[in-house]
Amino acid sequence: MEKCIYLKPIEKNNNWIIQRNKDYKGSYDYVTHYYYSCDSLSSIRISFTNRVRPILVGPPLIPIYPMFGFKTVTFLISISIKTYNDTDLLTLSKDIHIKINDSLSFFPYHIILDNTQKKWKEESYKSMCDNQSKTNNYSRILYRYKGNPDKINNITISFDQAFNKRLRSNYKSLDLKRRNRLHYSAFFVPMSYENK
């Protein structure tokens, strides 16, 4: 039995659409949901990883033994941007603000800017925004945080006016609150595991 920490939008009508990851099968496939906002010129997809933890093991259908010593020590936030407009990812990244547990003091220890200007080849990215031009470029920002994801209760991701001006869009903040769900995986084999 696993505990999946699922982030639910606080507001329903803020132009963000939530979608389950259809390929999620539990265990160590970390991304359970995607969060999309799209318009005719650009789109954003946000996902969160490393938020699954086994809590009980046992015979099939009877997970009764608690698991100890399994800890996750990293938390990742991925922000993917598709746009035909400004693709200066370094500048765009400065106009994105992430607040965890109502605090700006939770800083990532590593940020990856993937500005390879990939064309539309990402099948998983087409699911919510396939009405856009296939000439749009795909870029991604990956934030790595150290800390226990179990202690994250809410996340707010906001975009400055300068960000929206560059993309000629009007992206609103994404406010998420933690929800816990249980997930059963048959024939799970426990192992020593620690994310780094």
Q: Could you describe the 3D structure shown?
A:
The structure is a single chain. The strands form 3 sheets. This protein has a 6-stranded antiparallel sheet with strand order 2-3-4-8-11-10. A 5-stranded antiparallel sheet has the order 5-1-13-12-9. A two-stranded antiparallel sheet has the order 6-7. The protein has one domain. It has helices at 89-94, 126-129, 161-167, and strands spanning 2-9, 17-20, 33-38, 42-49, 52-54, 56-57, 65-66, 74-83, 96-100, 110-118, 137-146, 154-159, 174-183. The chain is built from 3 helices and 13 strands, in the order ββββββββαββαββαβ. The chain has 196 residues and is mostly beta strands. Mean pLDDT is 76; it is low at 190-196. The chain is 9% helix and 42% strand.
Outline of this structure?
The protein starts with a strand and ends in a 13-residue tail after the last strand. By secondary structure, the chain is mostly beta strands. The strands form three sheets. It has a six-stranded antiparallel β-sheet. Strands 5-1-13-12-9 form a five-stranded antiparallel β-sheet.
